[in-house]
């Protein structure tokens, strides 16, 4: 499990460290640095495990204020009884050309030694496999999509949902596909079946993907004998289906990054969505980092405030991050004990307390 992330000089993150849990929640106003934190994890994966040279070119564009002399990303993993620390450092004062970068960039990944020597970089590859920030886009789900073998992962924007569902129907009918249908019916009772049928793509789609077979999907109500195709469904329903597909992938990423899981979801269904996410983390042994602007999502973390991180920017545009338990609740209770004043009951309604500004992480009012 990813235990700790330390970031220096990445975009607005001048110097932040987060001690992570199994499921984590990042809260704060727009442009406070939540997405930058997720992008830093993506960039670490890209720079260490994918394209070293391209990462070196991009690094100067994502450094703090585009002026910092160095940038550092450090990931600490807990593996059984040992910690593995992976460090990626960029030094902008000593520039290197592309050839020497390609030859030497792997050395930019520093790892701490243990008694048995260096930790296994393959472990890092497994932990960050298929790392992406999921942002399902309902607008990309209404058109027919190409189908074919091998589509077993959902794209970051869920644009390949048709191909994914077709693959699940053919290969995982009794497991993955069935669970998606069951969970969909549990939360949206009017639908109990996912339908797929051959479809004709637009000329534009045909130009983009070439000579492939296309299908479209719809949701059916078997008792009424009615099927509603994707272009007839609400954005909320499409988003929810995409979320279920992400959650139920046969091999979900070990670290799942998901922005605003409440988007397009009715407030009464948020608890079910969060229950699915918590179940996913437990059953498939994966770690989840979520962002939200929704107080109902925050309420699902009432019993685990240590997993909530509050993001804000100071007057200089630097992101500051506080842990809800360690940096907000516990100091507040300590102050109450010292002054003999009544403690704030944060747990009674975390979301409401957040909206009132008691936790920080809310937009500043212009006076």
Automatic annotation (TrEMBL):
SUPFAM superfamilies reported for this sequence: P-loop containing nucleoside triphosphate hydrolases
Pfam families: AAA_21
Any one Gene Ontology molecular-function term assigned to this protein's record: ATP hydrolysis activity
Record domain ATPase AAA-type core: where: 23-298
Gene Ontology biological process: DNA synthesis involved in DNA repair; double-strand break repair
Alphabetized PANTHER family for the sequence: ATP-DEPENDENT ENDONUCLEASE, OLD FAMILY-RELATED (PTHR32182:SF22), DNA REPLICATION AND REPAIR PROTEIN RECF (PTHR32182)
Protein name: SMC domain protein
Species this protein is from: Fibrisoma limi BUZ 3
């Amino acid at each position: 499990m990813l235990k700790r992330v330390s970031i220096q000089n990445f975009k607005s993150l001048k110097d932040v460290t987060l001690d992570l849990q199994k499921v984590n929640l990042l809260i704060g106003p727009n442009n406070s640095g939540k997405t930058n934190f997720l992008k830093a994890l993506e960039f670490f994966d890209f720079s260490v495990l994918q394209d070293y040279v391209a990462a070196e070119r991009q690094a100067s564009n994502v450094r703090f204020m585009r002026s910092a002399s160095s940038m550092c990303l450090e990931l600490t993993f807990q593996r059984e009884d040992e910690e593995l620390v992976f460090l990626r450092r960029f030094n902008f004062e000593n520039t290197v050309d592309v050839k020497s970068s390609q030859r030497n960039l792997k050395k930019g990944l520093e790892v701490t030694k243990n008694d048995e020597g260096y930790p296994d970089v393959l472990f890092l590859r497994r932990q960050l496999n298929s790392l992406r920030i999921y942002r399902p886009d309902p607008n990309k789900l209404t058109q027919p999509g190409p189908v074919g073998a091998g589509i077993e992962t959902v794209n970051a924007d869920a644009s390949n949902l048709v191909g994914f569902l077709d693959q699940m129907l053919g290969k995982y009918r009794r497991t993955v596909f069935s669970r998606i249908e069951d969970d969909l019916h549990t939360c949206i009772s009017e639908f109990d079946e996912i339908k797929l049928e051959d479809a004709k793509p637009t000329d534009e789609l045909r130009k983009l993907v070439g000579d492939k077979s296309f299908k479209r999907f719809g949701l059916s109500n078997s008792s009424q004998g009615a099927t509603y195709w994707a272009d007839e469904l609400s954005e909320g329903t499409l988003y929810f289906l995409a979320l279920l597909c992400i959650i139920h992938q046969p091999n979900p990423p070990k670290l799942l990054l998901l922005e605003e899981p409440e988007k397009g979801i009715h407030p009464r269904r948020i608890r079910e969505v969060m229950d699915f996410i918590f179940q996913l983390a437990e059953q498939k042994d994966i770690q989840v980092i979520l962002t939200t602007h929704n107080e109902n999502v925050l309420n699902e973390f009432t019993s685990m405030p240590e997993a909530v991180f509050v993001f804000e920017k100071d007057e200089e545009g630097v992101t500051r991050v506080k842990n809800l338990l360690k940096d907000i609740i516990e100091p507040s209770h300590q102050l109450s004990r010292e002054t003999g004043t009544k403690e704030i009951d944060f747990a009674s309604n975390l979301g409401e307390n957040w909206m009132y500004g008691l936790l920080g992480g809310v937009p500043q009012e212009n006076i």
